[in-house]
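Support case: 1,3-dihydroxyacetonephosphate complex. Customer-provided input:
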Amino acid sequence: MRKKLLLGNWKMNKTPSEAKEFASSCEEMVKKAIDNNVDVGVAPTFVCLCPVVKYAPKGLIVSAQNCSQYDHGAYTGEVSIPMLKEVGVTYCIIGHSERREYDAETSEKCNAKIKALLAAEITPVYCCGESLATYEEGKTNEWVAEQIKAGMKDLTPEQAAKVVIAYEPIWAIGTGKSATKETAEETIGFIRKTLEGMFGAVAQDIRILYGGSVKPENIHDYMSMEDIDGALVGGASLKLDSYKALIDNLIG
Ligand code: 13P
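Agent response - structure generated as follows:
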């Protein structure tokens, strides 16, 4: 039985004091999620990781939004996995479409990062998803299969089982135009089949999230689908009230 996961991707929002405010006020909601067997977490910017780890209640997962594939060295502006580990980060988003678009992140680079994260026992949350043009051409499956095959290349089934996949159609991110639950389920089911082709039966244990304009009003619909194991949420995860409503409606 795959455990549900709700992860808030804060993107480039919140100053350290705002992040601290959220972390120190979310105890009740984190407890509610845990009591209902749901993993719950946030992914703040690098500079907000320390305050969030320090002030978060027990059980709140703290995720980074990116990492370097290298341990140390002359990589100006980068943050390494040992640094994240020491700070107390336990998850890391990899290959978000915004990084693929603005920072030329390739699936091959994501593959190196995923392997390095697994070696450090940090859970990678590997993002995939197609553009509106690809969706309209009916080539979603081909596109995501390519991203999954390249990003998850050469992992053992045991390693693959530890990765979380997030399917985020680019046309649904921040647009308010979410994929229908049927469309999301269809693609996520296809991703699971692709993983089964690569890793066998262990694909049934891999958690696959949906992301793209998830809100308190629609999260329950997604969670009612067989293959959808949680959500990666941007805008609706920023305010405590909205995050609380996401948990309430995910559970209820
Ligand atoms: P929104 O929930 O704001 O559409 O963002 C989705 C996303 O990109 C999460 O990683």
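The chain has twelve helices and eight strands.

Case will auto-close in a few days if no follow-up is received.
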